[in-house]
Design brief:
Helix content is about 50%, strand content about 20%. It is an alpha/beta fold. The chain has a four-stranded mixed β-sheet. The protein is globular.
Length: about 150
């Protein structure tokens, strides 16, 4: 189940459904199930979360908070995979910057966050290449050009 909630920010019903679908498609692409909460938030709130949990005092587009780490990612005992926080204003700015619709940017951020919850990362060059490839495949399957 993918629960979407707003904290000072909101999305249209269509955008909300696209975010839900993007997370579900990400899990499905890895043969996984589980529960995820997506928080749609403001610049102020995502900056606060980034500072509190990552010691980086700046606005970002998406943050992920895995419920489990290491081998527990394979089968979380309660099925809860974690949380994804998406900054709606930053998503809109990036959509404009990259010249694509907000819906496509929201789907990208949801897929990106979902992959992080499943253990993917992009700190190393080879990890980044693999994660980018997975993102592209999932978005393409959803009919969203990259």
């Amino acid at each position: 189940m993918v629960e979407i909630t707003g904290y000072g920010a909101a999305a249209t019903e269509e955008e909300t459904e696209l975010i839900r679908s993007a997370v579900q498609n990400t899990l499905r692409s890895e043969g996984r199930g589980g529960d995820v909460t997506v928080l749609l938030t403001t610049e102020e709130e995502i900056r606060s979360l980034n500072a509190r949990f990552r010691s980086i005092d700046r606005v970002t587009d998406v943050l992920t908070f895995p419920a489990w780490e290491g081998e527990a990612l394979i089968a979380p005992p309660d099925g809860y995979l974690g949380d994804i926080a998406i900054c709606m204003k930053r998503a809109a700015e990036q959509a404009e910057e990259y010249g694509h619709p907000l819906a496509r940017e929201l789907a990208f951020l949801a897929v990106h966050g979902g992959l992080h919850l499943l253990g993917y990362d992009h700190m190393q060059e080879d990890e980044e290449r693999i994660m980018r490839q997975k993102q592209t495949e999932i978005l393409r399957e959803m009919g969203l050009a990259v």
